[in-house]
Amino acid sequence: MARRSYLFTSESVSEGHPDKVCDRISDEVVDLVYREAAATGMNGWNVRCACETLATTNRVVIAGEVRIPETLMNGKGVVADRFIDVARRAIRDIGYEQDGFTWRDQTKIEVLLHGQSADIAQGVDKAADANAEGAGDQGIMFGYACRETPALMPAPIYYSHKILELLAAARHKGEGDAGRLGPDAKSQVTVKYEAGTPSEVVSIVLSTQHLDPTWDSKKVRSVVEPYIRKALGDLKISPACQWHINPTGKFVTGGPDGDAGLTGRKIIVDTYGGAAPHGGGAFSGKDTTKVDRSAAYAARYLAKNVVAADMADRCTIQLSYAIGVAKPLSIYVDLHGTGRVDEAALERALAEAMDLTPTGIRRHLGLNKPIYARTAAYGHFGRAPDADGGFSWEKIDLVDALTKAIR
Questions:
Q1: pLDDT per residue as tens digits for the range 349-406
Q2: 137 part of the active site
Q3: N or C: where does the chain have the smaller number of CB atoms within 10 Å of the terminal CB?
Q4: Catalytic residue among 265, 300, 304, 369
Q5: Is 52 marked active-site?
Q6: For residue 135, which phi and psi values (nearest 5 degrees)?
């Protein structure tokens, strides 16, 4: 029997967190490759990208393996200037222009991208088990959905993201003292559950960079508290709620100047805040032959549609793959005792309702597009689908197919 009364906590980090700066740059590289492929007539299905970024004081290193249009290559390798340009623009957009880290030339950017391994390419380009792409790697991927929030996301991570999104928007707009906040921030929300339902917030943690060195924790709280309360909306804040706002007292040096960043270190922030299992693979910097990314999107899409179809109040889906093999090795469903359909029957229905090969996922969700830089901060899930195909895995357009398949 699942617990009905308990506390659960999730954290989020802002677009200016060092690891998120790296995720953003890696996904800008993915988007650049997809844009250039479309502009030059290269088939988007042939794009390959596995890009990692490191950032520290006035230094960025971009490394990885790619298959890209000729316009991004020359006889000596990649055209570094094109990748340096998107990295600088990302850093500027996030808002970094400080002595130790800036979009300007004093931050050196090194590009170490090279061609994809032929050993990997042979298995991905043609699967061993089907006339389609094989999975870009082995692994397990999870998707999750629940009824705790309008986005069908767990409440702690949903509200942790929302706090930072509102603060970032205010910072970019220059709203009063919020315009003096810096890009680097972290939030954490603890929610009390009663009868399995979020009832109130009992702890709020926020650490945010500020550009005015005279500000103390009290001043920062006066700036951020209205945005926190707005983000939490109708979710009650307990009268005894513990507030920890900039608990160290000062946070002026932020971003990669304060702490080195790496792509792929915030995988729990990117997904469900610890409320659901995670297979271990990061998303950013990867094209969607990499099932770490595409199959995790597909699993979320399926889980969300299961809940939207009123088949359950909570749904966890696991998919597994082998490198060079197209079809998933297994499909697992857990409805956590809230299901109104048989789980084994639902597993069969999922395979019928959606082609879960890498090719099928990419086609169904329209993933061969430059839509990934926007995913790098504030979560890959629980976002509104965009008109251009971004966050297509958040649509609930599979309800009828699933309902038909389960009968």
A1: 999 999 999 999 999 999 999 999 999 999 999 999 999 999 999 999 999 999 999 8
A2: no
A3: N
A4: 265
A5: yes
A6: -65, 140
